[in-house]
Specification:
Elements (H helix, E strand, L loop, with lengths): L1 H19 L2 H5 L5 H24 L3 H7 L2 H28 L1 H23 L6 H32 L16 H19 L1 H8 L1 H9 L4 H7 L1 H23 L11 H16 L2 H9 L4 H23 L8 H45 L1
Helix pairs in contact: 1-13, 1-14, 1-15, 3-12, 3-13, 4-10, 5-6, 5-8, 5-9, 5-12, 6-7, 6-8, 6-9, 6-15, 7-15, 7-16, 10-11, 11-14, 14-15, 15-16
Length: about 375
């Protein structure tokens, strides 16, 4: 029971950071999104992780090297895809807002990121746990969909009256076209963002190697992120770097009056880092299904936090009551989904412990 409490507690902390980490993107004044994103992720994926493993996992390099070419290739590849998910995340959120963008991205990420790791362990999961966990994942996706629909209802208020709206000039996109483009970016980001959990799941060999070198289980779990971070930052560097060069916005890094935005970018990076490492530790405490159940719960909680910040920053200020009621329904479904997933994980853990005890008793009897 203590391990479950610790696991859910760490995942809750990660979700709080995950739901809040993009807020600095909305608070910037002089930086463009690409300035904030590249600098923030440089700290999140390079500076802070290397400082962390130097302190808590000094054998990280040996663990990574001993993991094998296949493991590293898969983890880096998933990281590269996740990095593009982070780039498209910024574009989508910048276009359609934090609440709606989060709902779409997290809904798709929940389905893909939870079900694939579960499918890899299908044979070791008891029948009752399978049913409960699948119901919980579906409820989680349904809750996210309802939140997304609430965001669509909210967005309709901001659409101009067709009779009074000015006709866009040649080559200029209408607000509806811009909204649809942002929506498509969010859908793409949802699929790619799930690669963070898939890369972490496939990189379990790194943690095993770190443990064999004497690292504790929690510090060993940090090593699983490193190969994925390298692939992720490469994608972000390509995506945001090309935008910085194309638009000439790289100059804003040395422009006067940008110190505030520099600090915000670092806070964004710190928040992103804190959304992942505690999640990895929490997934360890949840056991074999930590990357399935833990991911779904982490995403659902992140969405709750993101919507809270959406209210605080005024995204729902002019929203109709019907959309707010819809949002409340979606959030309630998410809370119910998390309870179901927690119960499903406890069933799976109980089954695993019973199986281990049976093998021990059988061995003693022999």
């Amino acid at each position: 029971m203590n391990s479950l409490v610790s696991g859910f507690g760490l995942i809750l902390f990660a979700a709080l950071a995950g739901g809040a980490f993009a807020v600095p993107l909305k608070m910037r004044r002089r930086y463009e999104w690409e300035n904030t994103w590249l600098l923030g992720f440089f700290f999140a994926l390079i500076v802070i992780p290397f400082a962390t493993v130097s302190l808590f996992l000094p054998v990280w390099w040996q663990a990574v090297a001993n993991s094998g070419f296949r493991t590293l290739t898969i983890a880096v590849a998933f990281g590269f895809l996740w990095g593009w998910g982070a780039v498209t995340f910024a574009i989508g959120i910048n276009a359609i807002g934090l609440s709606l963008g989060y709902a779409i991205i997290m809904g798709l990420s929940t389905a893909v990121g939870s079900i694939i790791p579960m499918a890899r362990r299908w044979g070791v999961i008891s029948g009752d746990a399978k049913v409960v966990i699948l119901v919980g994942i579906l409820a989680c996706v349904a809750g996210v969909a309802v939140c997304g629909w609430a965001g669509v209802l909210r967005g309709r208020v901001a659409e101009p009256d067709p009779a009074s709206a000015k006709k866009p000039s040649a080559g200029q996109k209408t607000s509806a076209q811009l909204f649809m483009a942002g929506l498509l970016w969010c859908v793409l980001s949802g699929f790619l963002s799930a690669c963070a959990n898939l890369g972490f799941d496939f990189a379990n060999r790194v943690a095993q190697e770190a443990s064999s070198l004497g690292a504790g289980p929690l510090s060993a779990s940090i090593g699983r992120w490193l190969p994925m971070y390298w692939g992720g930052f490469l994608a972000i560097l390509i995506g945001t770097g090309s935008t910085l060069v194309k638009k000439g916005t790289w100059r804003k890094y040395v422009a006067p009056g940008t110190a505030r935005d520099f600090v915000l970018a670092i806070l964004l990076g710190l928040g992103n880092f804190l959304a992942q490492i505690p999640y990895g530790m929490g997934a360890y405490f949840l056991g074999e299904l930590g990357t399935s159940v833990g991911w779904a719960i982490n995403i659902a909680l992140s969405l709750l936090v993101a919507n809270m910040f959406g209210f605080v920053t005024g995204e729902w200020k002019m929203a109709p009551k019907s959309s707010i009621r819809m949002l409340y329904v979606g959030l309630l479904v998410l809370i119910i989904a998390m309870v179901i997933l927690g119960y499903g994980n406890s069933l799976a853990s109980h089954h695993q412990h019973s199986a281990v005890a049976s093998r021990i008793l059988s061995g003693s009897a022999g």
